[in-house]
Amino acid sequence: MSIKEEIWIEKYRPEKLDDIVGQDEIIRRLKSYVKTRNLPHLMFSGPPGVGKTAASISIVKEIFGEAWKNNFIELNASDERGIDIIRHKVKDFARMAPLGEADFKVIFLDEADALTNDAQSALRRTMERYSATTRFILSCNYSSKIIEPIQSRCAVYRFKPLSAEAVSKRIKFIAEQERLVVSDGGLSAIEYVASGDMRKAINALQAAALLGDKVDEETIYQITSTARPEEIRNFITTALKGDFPGARGMLDDLLLSKGLSGQDVVVQIHRAMLDLNIPDKEKVRLIDRIGEIDFRMTEGANERIQLEALLAYFALNASKSS
User: Fold this and answer.
1) Is the pTM of this model over 0.85?
2) Burial of residue 46, with CB atoms counted within 10 A of its CB: 0-12 exposed, 13-18 middle, 19 or more buried
3) pLDDT in tens, 97-135
4) DSSP states along 236-273
5) For residue 51, what is the domain's CATH number?
6) Which domain holds residue 237?
7) Distance (Å, whole) CA 189 – CA 182
8) Boundary of a domain, candidates 131, 158, 185
9) Are both 115 and 68 inside the same structural domain?
10) Which of 158, 186, 212 is the last residue of a domain?
11) What is the structure's pLDDT at 80?
12) Rounded to whole angstroms, how far apart are CA atoms 314 and 269?
């Protein structure tokens, strides 16, 4: 199999806590558990692609060594959200004694915020009953969706979106391993596309690598169906100057030529709006309208009509900003 046919997010998944970038304070605290070979119940919350799963598996590998699979099970709660997954899979594994010389087993529940409230209540009782021999690691995007009794039983670690420097560091390492030449513009484009998500960054790099050994910004924006930041800024400023037909033409280019979805366009408009040189009061009013349009589209409104309504609002609030 060609090396470029492998899935790089799996190939370059961190094997040790030291390999995880951008979460230095959390990793430092997790290392103390490895050093003492003891572990409380843990809950990792944060956006996708920031190292939650990698940290969960890495800490188990470092505590148990080569035999880590004997006392570890990984379950994705989004596959089976109901109470049955707790009553059967989780409870059956929790009641078994640890194998070998291990003092406890580890159950890793990925996407735990997808569990129903009944399932979470059953999980709470299981955590209480088998706490002597079993530790739980819960991973979720939104900790607010986890019931309070479970949160109070866990040491909660909140992972932050990765910085541009952290993404750049890992991408440079992968490019060096794969003998790729990534231009400065290409690296900046990957950082922009990733938005703090390492999986997005690695997938973008691999997709670009399939087209050649040299990766530049044009390739990254093309294969990820992302508009350049300057295109979005021009699009917004054109509308803010009152040129609705011109902005509408740019919208056609984004939707039809570049293949962006309406949701993609709104997200990029929001990102660009924060950096525009316009009065704060006007910026607040425009961002409020962007949020309204995003909500309507999420609820199923026609994307094209909503985006044109947003442009019309920008044009009606034309300013002298550029």
Assistant:
1) no
2) buried
3) 778 777 888 989 888 888 888 888 888 888 888 888 889
4) HHHHHTT-HHHHHHHHHIIIIIS---HHHHHHHHHHHH
5) 3.40.50.300
6) 229-316
7) 10
8) 158
9) yes
10) 158
11) 64
12) 12
Helix, strand and coil in the chain, % to nearest 5: 60, 10, 30
| Other Cβ atoms within 10 Å of 29 Cβ, number | 12
Dig out the tokens for 291 from the structure: 């949020």
* Tokens standing for residue 110: 């990925």
Same domain, 190 and 259: no
The CATH number of the domain holding residue 173 is 1.10.8.60
* DSSP β-ladder status, 155-158 and 42-45: parallel
The one-letter amino acid code at 281 reads K
CB 43 within 8 A of CB 78: no
The torsion region of residue 168 among left (phi > 0), alpha (psi -120 to 50) and beta comes to alpha
Is residue 244 within 8 A of residue 250, CB to CB? The reply is: no
